[in-house]
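Take a minute with the sequence and fold tokens given here and flag any structure token that looks odd. Thanks in advance.
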Amino acid sequence: LAMLGFIAAIATELISGEGLLHTIGL
């Protein structure tokens, strides 16, 4: 479930745009 939540968070960030950078910690 934790991994699914992480993937969902990444997907949401991708939709937001540059959020992916924040997700991976850059």
